[in-house]
From TrEMBL:
GO molecular function per UniProt: catalytic activity; molybdenum ion binding; pyridoxal phosphate binding
Organism superkingdom: Bacteria
Ranges for domain MOSC: 122-262
Protein name, entry field: Molybdenum cofactor sulfurase
Length: 265
C-alpha cells in the first residue's frame, strides 16, 4: 500500500480571500481553528465570495494571536477589532448570528470591492449545523460552504495539470489538507482516515463552481481550468475535485504526518 503523508496545509481566515500556507493546523469543534472565521456580507447579511467578486482572491489575511489584519492592492492595511453588535447572516441556506467588525472594516471592504459590504466574525453565539444528510446532526461548521474540512490529493492536481498550460497550484481548490503518495483521485474512494489521534470521515465529494478558474495571484478568470474539469471530472451536471470531511475530536495536524486509510467506500 502507498505511504500517504500530509504535504500541504491551508488556512482561509476570511471566507473567499487568499489562503495562508501553514505548517500546522489546530482543529476545534468547527474545523481548523480560525478557518472561514471571518466573512464579507452584503447589506442584507448574505455572504459575498469570489464567484461574483474575483478580486476577493487578492485580499491577504494576516493572522496573529487570533486577531486578523487585511491587506489588498491599493488599500492600506487594516486591523479588525473585536466585534460590536450582532447580526443575522446567511451562508447558502443557513442563517446564523455573527459579530459585526465595525464601520472602519465595512468602509474598507466597500471601497475595495466597489459595493456596500460589511465584515463579520464568528462568535460564541454563532451556531451552524452540518447538513444532517451527511452527519449525525450534532457537528458544527463556521462560514465554510458546508463542511468543516476539505481534503484533496496532490496526485489529483498533478493529473489535471497534464492538460493545463501553465499548470495551476492547489490554492485554486481551497483545501485544508493535501495528501501525497496516492494515485490520482484515490480520495474519491476513501471513507475514513486516521491522522495522528484524529479521525476524518470523508462524507461528500466537493462540487466545484467558477472559483478554480480564478488565478489567485491576479484575480483573473481562466476558463480553461473549468473546461479541463468538465472534460475529466464531470459527474452528471457537476464537476468534482476533493472531498468534504468531518473530523472527530480535536488536535493538531502537521506537514509530513502519516495518513492511514481506515476504510474505503
Amino acid at each position: 500500500m502507498d505511504k500517504l503523508t500530509i504535504s500541504g496545509l491551508y488556512l482561509h481566515p476570511l471566507k473567499s480571500a487568499a489562503a495562508l500556507i501553514v505548517e500546522a493546523l489546530n482543529f476545534d469543534s468547527r474545523g481548523p481553528q480560525f478557518d472561514r472565521h471571518w466573512m464579507v456580507v452584503d447589506q442584507n447579511g448574505k455572504f459575498r465570495s469570489q464567484r461574483h467578486h474575483p478580486k476577493m482572491s487578492l485580499i491577504e489575511p494576516v493572522l496573529h494571536a487570533g486577531r486578523l489584519s487585511l491587506k489588498a492592492p491599493g488599500m492600506p492595511r487594516i486591523d479588525l477589532g473585536q466585534p460590536g453588535s450582532s447580526q443575522s447572516v446567511t451562508v447558502w441556506d443557513d442563517t446564523l448570528i455573527a459579530g459585526d467588525c465595525g464601520a472602519t472594516a465595512a468602509n474598507w471592504m466597500s471601497e475595495y470591492l466597489g459595493v456596500m459590504s460589511r465584515v463579520v466574525v464568528l462568535t460564541q453565539d454563532s451556531l451552524r449545523r452540518v447538513d444532517r444528510q451527511y452527519s449525525s446532526g450534532e457537528e458544527t461548521v463556521g462560514f465554510a460552504d458546508g463542511y468543516p474540512c476539505l481534503i484533496a490529493s496532490q496526485a489529483s492536481l498533478d493529473d489535471l495539470n497534464q492538460y493545463l498550460k501553465p499548470p495551476i497550484d492547489m490554492r485554486r481548490f481551497r483545501p485544508n489538507i493535501v495528501i501525497s503518495g496516492s494515485a490520482p483521485y484515490a480520495e474519491d474512494q476513501w471513507q475514513k482516515l486516521k491522522i495522528g489521534d484524529m479521525i476524518f470521515d470523508l462524507v461528500k465529494p466537493c462540487s466545484r463552481c467558477i472559483i478554480p478558474s480564478i488565478d489567485p495571484d491576479s484575480g483573473e478568470k481562466q476558463m480553461a481550468v473549468n473546461q479541463v474539469l468538465m472534460a475529466h471530472r464531470r459527474r452528471g451536471r457537476n464537476t468534482f475535485f476533493g472531498q468534504n470531511a468531518i473530523h472527530q475530536g480535536r488536535g493538531e495536524l502537521r506537514i509530513g504526518q502519516t495518513v492511514e486509510v481506515i476504510s474505503e467506500k
